[in-house]
Amino acid sequence: MPVQRLNHAVLYVRDVERSVAFYREALGFEVVMGMRGAAFLQAPGSTNDHDLGLFQIGADATASPAGRTSVGLYHLAWEVDTLEELERVAAKLAELDALVGSSDHGTTKALYARDPDGLEFEVSWLVPASLLTDETLAARSSIRPLDLSADKERYGAQTRGGVGVSIPA
């Protein structure tokens, strides 16, 4: 059996309480278990035991050089169900001064943000398989500015996004 999906991610952070507060406010995660210097969070509606683990390493920790002077993880990506939810998350991330960009990748509509430790993550909506066109598939070869208003008009604000690679129902 091949790997099916990412079950959870674990991050080293400077201050676990600060990070818990951020992920709770930004994405609605809730703590399902905690201990001294660690917390395990679950995304709203998730059936995972936990989706994100946070381990505190202290205020003196240096920023990750990944992508600048070393190899390492670039970002994690979480999916939302609707474009309306993507728009709500964009507003929340902007309010928290965490939103650093957005992109239209054809089949994926994406927001990019940084947590309090500067770790980047993505929140995205995937075009459902039933709405994929040759044009949408071809658009994966370039990156364009995200236009949520146009996408909501085209696909519907409440249309449930695809799962993974937009598998047909």
How many helical elements? 4
Amino-to-carboxy terminus distance: 21 Å
Instruction: List low-confidence stretches.
Output: none
| Estimated radius of gyration | 17 Å
| Strands ordered across the widest β-sheet | 1-4-3-2
Give the averaged pLDDT, no decimals: 93
Q: Main beta sheet, described? A: 4 strands, mixed
Structural class: alpha/beta
What is the compact description of this entry?
The chain contains 4 helices and 8 strands. It has 169 residues and is α/β, with parallel strands linked by helices. α2 runs antiparallel to α4.
Keywords:
169 residues; alpha/beta; four-stranded mixed sheet; 22% helix; globular
Descriptive account of the structure:
This protein is α/β, with parallel strands linked by helices and 169 residues long. Helix content is 22%, strand content 27%. The strands form two sheets. The protein has a four-stranded mixed beta sheet, with helices on one face. β6 and β7 form a beta hairpin. α2 runs antiparallel to α4. The longest helix is centred in the middle third of the chain and has 13 residues. It is globular, with a radius of gyration of 17 Å. The mean pLDDT is 93.
